[in-house]
Every structure is written in structure tokens, then in C-alpha cells.
Known about the structure:
- By secondary structure, the protein is an alpha+beta fold.
- It folds into 3 domains: about 1-70, 2-Layer Sandwich (Uridine Diphospho-n-acetylenolpyruvylglucosamine Reductase, domain 2); about 75-185, Uridine Diphospho-n-acetylenolpyruvylglucosamine Reductase, domain 3 (2-Layer Sandwich); about 230-335, Uridine Diphospho-n-acetylenolpyruvylglucosamine Reductase, domain 1.
- It has 8 helices and 20 strands.
- Helix 4 packs across helix 5.
- The protein is globular.
Amino acid sequence: MKDIQNQQLKSYNTFMVSALCDRFVQVEEDGEIPRLWEEGIFGRPYLVLGGGSNILFTQDFHGTIIQMCTRGIVVIEEDTNSALVEVAAGVDWADFVDFCIRNHYYGVENLIGIPGRVGSSPVQNIGAYGVEVKDVIDSVIGFRISSQKPFALRNEECAFGYRSSIFKTEWKNDVLITRVRFRLSKIPHFTLTYQALSKELENRKLELTLENIAALVKSIRDAKLPDITKIGCAGSFFKNPVVDISVRDRLVEQVPQLVSYPAGEGKVKLAAGQLIDLAGMKGVREGDAGVYPLQALVIVNYGNASGTEICNFYQKIQKEVFNRFGIFIEPEVNIE
Length: 336
């Protein structure tokens, strides 16, 4: 376990904003976890941090930040149809996806290129290109912080929803996820419901293989999203709003080209990026905070924007969209 006082967090968040925390603890082995309670860490303000790819620090954190840095990918069971794979919370999501592609395990190839760590993936129910991680999660394992007791929740117990889970609602700030188990298919199957993906596959006349789909998704992402090693951002900043069909129908009269997707009985999901674009905010920049010119869902730090400046900027975007459409778009990113 690494234990650092007064840690600068700029290199631990993909927005690359400067902030300090009083104490920074990196857990490298599951056996170190009991020490967190023994040292009274949870008796004071604390924050469990993954890869820092879904957080915006607007101020210094006066408490302890805990980061799971455990490693390991283990195939628990396997037959001709599927494999059950257990992954440590500290494994980079990109490394897990690469593992699946190398071993021809199907299910996460559409999620290639998403930054972060495996332990954070069920919290946010990460998703992209027609796939959500809930589609392949078997169970989530960890500890309840308040009771110090271990838990193992099956998929159906995790209350997964759009960019949500029990870990973000009922159990918010009360879990330390240690491992995630994934049920992956060994039988070739692909999710091609995302129009841009299926159209690009057709245009390039590619053979339908796991490697080709993964490479195609990666190229589509790279074409419209910034390189987080060069430009600070947290991927998609806003959730796509879910509204009543009647609201969509009203907006279509105003915007005939409005994009929407089915989202359950009587509901549709609108494209937040399109709303931001139509509100005139795509490519807008104020100081070092701006909307990425190639993808309106992405707010970027072009250099030295503070967390507060980025926060003020995203709130301006919210206001512009609401004034234009009467729709309130919520951040997907956690604000601290």
C-alpha cells in the first residue's frame, strides 16, 4: 500500500486540473483493505477514485482519496459457449478489453477505447455504440464501507440503469469494489445497432470479425474524441436526456432533424450532443475551457483551466440548451 500526504491530483484525473488531497492511498493487494478501517480512514472525508476519467475536481479534497491498484485477470470457468472472467478492480479497462479480443471472448469490443479502470465500470454502467457493461457483468464483489462486510451482488441485484447502478444511488459512497466478474460469449455475435458503426462497416466492406469490429469502433472514437494524453477531458460530459414522447414530438416541430432513440414505455432518449450543437455551443471556447469541435458532448481543458472554470462553463452550456429547448441536460461526470 502506498500512502502519500498532500498529493497533487493533476496526473490522477483526465481533465488534468490541479487539486490537492490531504492523503492519497493506493491499495495494491486485497489483503491491505482491512488497514483502511484500522487506520480510521473512513471516519473522515474520503473518496474512492478509479482512473480519474469521470471526475472533475473543482477544489482541493480535504480528506483521503483511495485508489484501487490491484491487478489480475483470471478465467474462473469456461466451456464451448462462454467464459466467466474475474478481473481485479485496479486493472485498466483497456487491458481487459485487449485480453478479451486476444482470447476471442465476445461482448466488450464495442467498449474499446473507454478510459478508466474495471472497478469503476459497474458504478457508471459504462456504455458506447449500443453496448452497456451490464450486458456482460455476472457479478460485482467488494466491501460495504459502513458495515465493513463483504458483498457479492449478482447482475440483477445491481439495479443497473442508464449510466447508473446501485453503487451510484442506494449504495453511493459506501462501496469498495475489489473484483468484477464478466460472462463473455465464445460464440461470435456482434452488436451493430449503432448506425454510424453499421454504416462504416458496410462502407469499408470489412469482414465481420472481433478484431475488425474493435478496430472500427476505435477508429470512430479516435476520429471524434480528443487524445486524453494531450487534451484534458472526461469523455462524454453529459448524459443523453430521457424524455416523454410528447416532449420529443413538440421538439420535432421546432427541429425536424431531431435525433431520438426508444428508451422504454412512453420514453425516448435524445442526443445531448445534437442539442448542444443546435444551441450554438459546439466548438465554443472560453479561456482554456471549451466544447470539443468534433464532438459537442465533450468538454475539454485546452491547457490550464481550473476545475471551477470548467464547472462554470458546463453550467453555461446547460443554460443555453435549456433556454433553447426546455431540456435540462445532466452531467455524466462526477463533480467534486
